[in-house]
């Protein structure tokens, strides 16, 4: 336990030659992401079938992060090789993994607020908004970690900046759809508990566009 | 393992080891045509598989054949486009007096296609993921068109950069030999140095195959021929993809190996784009 905390601390305050150990990072995503997911899934309570939602959400949050990461990684690897940054890829990989792990640390640290929110307000739509806000905060602040790791790389070679931007675009493109597919994370109180929603096999971007059109009055 | 060797060969191209100035000095690109061709076919099949995942999630008559069709069609698309555009490239090259022979030219082009397919293959997972989770046929078409364009663009960028490096080296060789001649005729120590062309020292940094090396371009006409060819290659490739369609498989119709002749690629993409919403 103490080693884990120590590793998490190192990740938040990376110093030279004191980077967190690589094999800890996916574990951190699994446990801390799972932790936040479990908290997220408690919206409907613990009674009977609703307990499953807690379990589902606890698997879905790490799945969201790790699956998006591994789907985007191959093309990022080829791109890095093509611009001649292959020799740095080990560092790049640990920077990216550290960001994932860092995001789950931040999420886990925000989970008490989610609990408080669930205890105080009942509205499902607001619960979604609040969780969205927590995810937003976590992903934005996780970029600070990413930048901290990337800054020495960018100093070495300017191309790393371009690669960083490309990574963020790629990751967001896949991640948004992944988040859409893996719904529900919280679980609507009016619907039965299920891992995937039947009608969820849609396309996030198309939905957003349709909502946008509807908002304009078309 | 022969596959591993082929993969290593492609990897060396991707890392820019085959197009380093030292490597280019010897002759043309030192690559094994057979191995890169094998990789092109394998990566094309991999992407075809990822592409046809969309048809597996649909339910129309004969949709299981789409997997086989796409796995054959993606490598065929690239190789047939090459087959159509290569002869004219060679002829025009020879016309403007380039020093490429058939084999050297083929090596250069195949290496570029290898780069394009490496990118395409690595994007396959993303396409497969979207194919599984999306029900919109139009979105998949546009995503695939976009991914093919990105990969093709990178491959052709590789081609232009390699060509540029080759022309710098050719220029340097020429000035070297001129300088030697001058030395023989009238030995003045300063004359040769005026022609020196600077290449940024490669020792400190590792440079990828897409990185620019600075220096004057000598064979302007050859580069023009290649630029024109790139445009032609893009156009032919796009139309070839239209001839070979369906790649993804329209969920609203039956499976067919080929569709009847009608319309063209650009019109179809525009229509898909506007019909998407």
Task: Walk me through what this model shows.
The complex is a heterodimer of chains A (218) and B (277). Chain A is built from 7 helices and no strands. Chain A is mainly α and 218 residues long. Chain A has one domain. In chain A, helix 4 packs antiparallel against helix 5. Chain A is globular. The mean pLDDT of chain A is 85. With 277 residues, chain B is mainly α. Chain B has one domain. In chain B, 70% of the residues lie in helices and 0% in strands. Chain B has 9 helices and no strands. The longest helix of chain B has 49 residues. Chain B is elongated and about 80 Å long. Chain B starts with a helix and ends with a helix. Classes of the chains: A mainly alpha (218), B mainly alpha (277). Chains A and B meet through helix 3, helix 6 and helix 7 of A and helix 5 and helix 6 of B.
N-to-C SSE string of chain A, H for helix and E for strand: HHHHHHH
Number of domains of chain B: 1
- Chain pair sharing the greatest interface: A-B, 31 and 31 residues
Outline the low-pLDDT stretches of chain B.
187-198, 200-204, 214-218
The average pLDDT value of chain B, as a whole number, equals 82
| Relative strand content of chain A | under 5%
Write down the secondary-structure element order of chain B: HHHHHHHHH
């Amino acid at each position: 336990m103490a080693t884990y905390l120590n590793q998490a601390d190192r990740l938040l305050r990376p110093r030279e030659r004191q980077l967190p150990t690589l094999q800890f990072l996916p574990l951190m995503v699994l446990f801390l992401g799972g932790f936040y997911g479990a908290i997220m899934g408690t919206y409907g309570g613990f009674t009977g079938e609703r307990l499953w939602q807690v379990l589902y959400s606890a698997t879905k949050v790490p799945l969201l992060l790790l699956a998006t990461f591994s789907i985007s990684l191959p093309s990022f690897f080829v791109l890095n090789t093509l611009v001649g940054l292959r020799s740095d890829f080990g560092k790049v990989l640990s920077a990216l993994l550290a960001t994932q792990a860092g995001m789950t640390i931040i999420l886990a640290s925000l989970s008490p607020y989610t609990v408080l929110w669930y205890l105080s307000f009942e509205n499902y739509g607001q619960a979604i908004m609040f969780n969205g806000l927590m995810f937003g905060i976590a992903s934005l602040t996780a970029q600070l970690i990413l930048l901290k790791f990337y800054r020495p790389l960018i100093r070495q070679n300017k191309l790393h900046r371009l690669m960083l931007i490309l990574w963020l675009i790629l990751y967001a493109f896949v991640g948004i759809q992944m988040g859409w597919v893996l719904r529900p994370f919280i679980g609507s109180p009016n619907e039965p508990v299920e891992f995937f929603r039947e009608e969820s096999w849609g396309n996030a971007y198309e939905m957003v566009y349709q909502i946008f059109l509807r908002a304009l009055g078309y | 393992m022969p596959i591993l060797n082929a993969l290593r060969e492609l990897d060396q191209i991707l890392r820019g080891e085959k197009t380093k100035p030292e490597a280019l000095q010897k002759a043309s690109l030192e690559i094994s045509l057979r191995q890169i061709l094998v990789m092109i076919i394998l990566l094309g099949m991999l992407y075809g598989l990822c592409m046809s995942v969309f048809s597996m999630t649909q339910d129309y008559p004969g949709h299981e054949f789409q997997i086989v069709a796409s796995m054959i069609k993606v490598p065929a698309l690239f190789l047939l486009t090459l087959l159509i555009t290569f002869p004219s490239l060679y002829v025009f090259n020879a016309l403007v007096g380039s020093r490429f022979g058939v084999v050297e030219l083929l090596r250069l082009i195949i290496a570029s296609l290898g780069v394009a397919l490496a990118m395409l293959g690595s994007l396959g997972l993303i396409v497969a993921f979207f194919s599984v989770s999306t029900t919109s046929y139009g979105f998949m078409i546009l995503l695939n068109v976009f991914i093919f364009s990105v990969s093709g663009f990178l491959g052709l960028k590789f081609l232009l950069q390699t060509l540029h490096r080759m022309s710098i080296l050719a220029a340097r060789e020429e000035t070297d030999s001129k300088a030697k001649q001058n030395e023989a005729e009238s030995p003045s120590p300063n004359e040769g140095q005026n022609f020196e062309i600077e290449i940024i020292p490669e020792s400190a940094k590792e440079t990828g195959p897409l990185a620019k090396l600075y220096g004057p371009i000598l064979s302007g006409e050859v580069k023009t021929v290649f630029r024109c060819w790139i445009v032609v290659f893009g156009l032919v490739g796009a139309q070839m993809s239209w001839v070979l369609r369906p790649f993804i498989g329209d969920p609203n119709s039956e499976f067919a190996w080929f569709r009847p002749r009608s319309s063209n690629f650009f019109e179809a993409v525009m229509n898909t784009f506007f019909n998407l919403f």
